[in-house]
Amino acid sequence: MNVLVINAGSSSLKYQLMDPETGDVAAKGLCERIGIDGRLTHKVDGKKAEREIPMPTHSEAINAVLEILVDPEYGVIKSVDEIDAVGHRVLHGGMKFTDSCIIDDACIKAIEDCIPLGPLHNPANLMGIRACQAVMPGKPQVAVFDTAFHMTMPPVAYRYAIEKKYYENDDIRRYGFHGTSHKYITRRAIALMGRTDLKIINCHLGNGSSLSAVKDGKCMDTSMGLSPLAGVCMGTRSGDIDPTVCQFIMNKYGLTADEMLNDLNKKSGVKALSGVSSDFRDIEGAAKEGNEDAQLALDKFAYDVKKYIGAYAAALGGCDVLTFTAGVGENGPDMRAKICQGLEYMGVKIDPEKNNTRGKETIISTDDSKVTVWVIPTNEELMIAQDTAELVKAAN
Ligand code: AMP
User: Fold this and answer.
1) Atom 10 in ligand 1: which residue has the minimum CA distance?
2) Are the CB atoms for 280 and 328 separated by under 8 Å?
3) Residue 321 in contact with residue 312, Cβ under 8 Å?
4) How confident is the model at residue 58 (pLDDT cuts 50, 70, 90)?
5) What is the dihedral of CA 254, 259, 265, 268, to 10 degrees?
6) Helix locations, the chain, DSSP H
7) For residues 384 and 125, what is the distance between their CA atoms, to the nearest angstrom?
8) Is residue 235 lining ligand 1, measured as CB closer than 6 Å?
9) Which sequence positions are flagged as catalytic?
10) Using a 6 Å cutoff on CB, does residue 326 contact ligand 1?
11) Which of 45, 63, 149, 170 could disulfide-link to 183, CB 3.0 to 4.6 Å?
12) Is the dihedral of CA 150, 154, 157, 158 positive or negative?
């Protein structure tokens, strides 16, 4: 089966053509500058094609993708008929989506209804969906939501302690994000451990970072909230913050709510603390050269993650498996060691030699560690392709 996985942004569109059973990626690429001029970068078998193609809308971008997928030199299929289904990444599923779903009119309407919760991403995701409908009418399509995996959380985890009317009338609650990654990592951890009855703490640590607490395969808590701004401090996001800080800054410097949020999303986190970069490699480099602000940024990030691990161990009543994934989680042995340092009391013992690994699925804890600590490279595209294949097969 061939599934075309689409991740549409407002002016960009990432794609992968993949086999959901093997995970093999036949080709992948990126359309950029949609609505401006249009550029396609396509990768296949170590070859790269770059083309300037006018893309006034997402439809031209999808057309360009389909054309290059059947191209005599860079193509991997003979005809678009060989694409069995399309899987779309959608940011916010609100309270309406507890799982992935086949795209029909009702599904589109429900994604539209979630726009107030995901005002930046959902409209772009919808543009990708509509473009595929226009260019490939009748092709089965599935929406996979970043929030869905977390919908099993109990009310104590997802409710905010604010007036009930905001929850009842406006769906204000904790949703969580990176759900496709947390779902993939949970499935892998269960498969690797050979059992489902596990208490798992997943650490997705990248430019955006979130943790999840999982029991028997179900998400019980997660660190992001109504939006991806909550939780641990991140590349450019502040993470959890006392709202009074916002009130103080807004009043003193005359910032609007949108401007304040923009600062918290784009100018904060380890970038702000270090004054160096949002990239952990740059920060680690600066810290090694003695930059104290960079060191503080690394210390604070590790501290935040450690604190959430402790909180989730308490919430779950223990921890059997701790996982690390995403850019920093997969490739940052120093950060992993720093986070796990001092967690011996809860049974986490890291083997420094095993921990000296990057980008590979591997155990990094000692044989006698009570908690099994895994590095598991995430694969959100594969999760989207698998959900798509499963739903499309079930519908036929
Ligand atoms: P992601 O958002 O998952 O793509 O992760 C991006 C983050 O991963 C960036 O901050 C990178 O600096 C970080 N990263 C990637 N490779 C490494 C590495 N070898 N060591 C430390 N951090 C890394």
Assistant:
1) 279
2) yes
3) no
4) very high
5) -30
6) 58-69, 105-113, 122-135, 155-158, 164-170, 179-193, 243-253, 257-266, 269-274, 280-288, 292-316, 326-331, 333-340, 352-355, 380-395
7) 14
8) yes
9) 146
10) yes
11) 149
12) positive
pLDDT per position as a tens digit, 309-359: 999 999 999 999 999 999 999 999 999 999 999 999 999 999 999 999 999
- Cα distance between residue 98 and residue 151, in whole Å: 5
Residue 60's CB: how many other CB atoms inside 10 A? 18
CB 94 within 8 A of CB 171: yes
Burial class (CB in 10 A: 0-12, 13-18, 19+), 53: middle
At 350 the pLDDT is 98
Q: What is the DSSP letter of 350?
A: B
- C-alpha distances (whole Å) from 85 to each of 3, 124, 356 are 5, 20, 39
Residues shown for the chain: 396
Q: Is the CB of 281 under 6 A from ligand 1?
A: yes
**Alpha carbons 337 and 363: distance in angstroms, whole number:** 13
How many C-beta atoms surround the C-beta of residue 67 within 10 A?
Answer: 16
How far is the C-alpha of 341 from the C-alpha of 298, rounded, in Å?
A: 14
- For residue 329, report the distance from its CA to the centre of ligand 1, in Å: 8
pTM of the predicted protein model: 0.96
Task: Count, in order, helices (H) and strands (E) of the chain.
Answer: 15, 14
SS3 96: coil
For residue 377, the CA-to-ligand 1 centroid distance in Å is: 12
DSSP state of 385: H
DSSP code string of 132-155: HHHHSTT--EEEEETTGGGGG--H
CA-to-CA distance for 4 and 249, rounded, in angstroms? 45
Give me the mean pLDDT over the 263-288 stretch.
98
Please work out whether the CB of residue 343 comes within 6 Å of at least one atom of ligand 1. no
217-238: burial string, b at 16+ Cβ within 10 Å, e else? eebbbbbbbbbbbbbbbbbbbb
**Which of 247, 232, 250, 138 is CA-nearest to residue 176?**
232
- Cα–Cα distance, 287 to 26 (Å, whole number): 40
Structure tokens at 43: 């990768």
Amino acid at 59: S
φ/ψ of residue 330, rounded to 5: -85, -30
